[in-house]
Amino acid sequence: MKRPHILLITTDQQRYDGMGIHGNPVLETPNLDHLARCGRDFSRAYVTCPVCIPARRTLLSGQHPFTHGLRRYEDGLDWDPPFTLPGILSDAGYQTQLVGKLHMHPMGKRYGYDHMVLSETTHARPTSSTQRRNDYARWLREQGVAEHPHFHGINGNGRLVAPWPLEDRFHQNNWLAREATRFLCEDRDPTSPFFLHLSFFHPHPPLVPTRDYLARYMAKEMPPSVLGEWAAQGGVATGLAADSAVGPFEEAIIQRARAAYYALINHIDDCIAHVLDRWREYGNPRTREPLYVLFSSDHGEMLGDHHLFRKSLAYEGSSHVPFFIGGYNVPIERGVDETLCSWEDVLPTVAELAGVSLPGPVDGRSLAPALRGEAVEPRESITGMCQCHATNYWQVRGDEKYIWFSQTQEEQLFDLRTDPQETRDLSADESRLVPFRESMTEAARLHGGFAYEPDNLTPCRNRPPKALFG
Questions:
Q1: Catalytic residues
Q2: Mean confidence (pLDDT) of the chain
């Protein structure tokens, strides 16, 4: 087989159940669903620091946050990894192209990409020290759109909603699909394999989908938000900021946010269909070329579950993401795969699919054997963290997830097999906490940066964590 082309598609802030095939009864993602069903769908994929920049460092380097050193959201930091995914592919003769969001510093540093069409956000920020360049905003000006892209006023991290105020063709989702097809069908080098990273900014807020997609989901009955027994109960908190991460929220506002969030995902699904349809145009010899398609997201979105919004937390809505590998004219053992995996695994997986040797150690392992129907190197657990408004460290081991809030020393424990929506905290049974406490003690010893003292811990016992709800 010729060296395969590789198309990596990522979204921003799309939770695992943000696909119809993953049990969502409302969301329409027929194209992603079909790709996942015809490929290898990894149902237990996590991001070990579920905020943008640390996750994207992991994607580029194969390094855990313990290794690359960023355990929180912090922009404007220089970073010089020993090698990157696009870099090793470029060195091996691949043409490497980014279309969309990179979120690395300084802007314009290629990190191994031969060429980048760069747009970190739907904002135009010409006076920003970290996000001055935006090729999407530049294109809008070239099209005669004089208004600032965010003149709708909807917050870039909030739960409020508005319809996209311009023609659909000006929406960033459409622009990204257009730029990807331009590379695939016009600009690429036909004599070499390519690695294209198509990196969507949405469904990250602002929640401003086009009118038709928004109307589709506003007309649907949304399932209620998940509210765990342990979460804050009672009335709505008034006077919250539009981007508040903690409620309680008004359910009508959350349902509207959910409709807009789904609308953006549905739009992306159709954009992906357009890109793949252009690549596989009837009668074109490209249709016979080998192509792997990988899809995932840098983190999820709490979306009102447990009266929480945004990301950075250990809960499933935030840290559990879709991840599948499909493609055309490539051998793949189809099926749902329950192998515990994370974004550290993307680099070694893609390297093996491309036939490229790793130039140094990584913290992930290749999932390519699963595509051949073979066993993947087992992983006992995944440890994650985020130093944020409620700094939390966590571990998934077997069917259970352990969460520790370092500021309050509180603990939670969930059985993901019997309670996948994390509605009942089992930390009252301290015997079940013992292996996690031992493992977290060892992680603190090995990696540093946090003090973990088992004698000072306080199980939440199915009550609201003070770290979140005060």
A1: 52, 103
A2: 96
